[in-house]
Amino acid sequence: MAFLHSHSSKCMTSSLDLFSLPPTQTSIESSNYVHFKPISSLSAENDAPIEFVVPAASDYYLDLAHTMLHVKVKIGPLQDAAADNQKVGPVNNFLHSIWAGIEIFFNQKLVSSCNSLYPYRAYIETLLNYNDDAKKSHLTSTLDQCIRAADSKPRPK
To answer: What does the pLDDT look like over 126-143, one tens digit per residue?
Structure first.
């Protein structure tokens, strides 16, 4: 059998290893959440990026897989438009669609791809990578399910 490396040994995928006891993780003794606030001011007139600075520390590490962003959003009609009979609501995959792009830097080095197509990419990834059970449970936080439910209702004439 050909191996990727000459010193590589045979192994079995963990999904087929049905009868062995899984190992116990002992490297992380505890965890907690640390809150970081944006360093720039947020306003409707200001089109500046929302930037967070996470200082380096030797006593903990940052697990990006468990990073969360808390967002409060108010949706309403435009201020200069007449508010009579205006239907206003979020778009599909709303929490991804409010960002034009996301850039992640480590030590001033860009480590994520950046372009203005982030909302489309996130929506397509959600459609392709998650089943209906996920879309009915934890993905409802992106407001995708709410839009589908509203679209299925008959519209008044």
So the answer is: 888 888 888 788 887 777
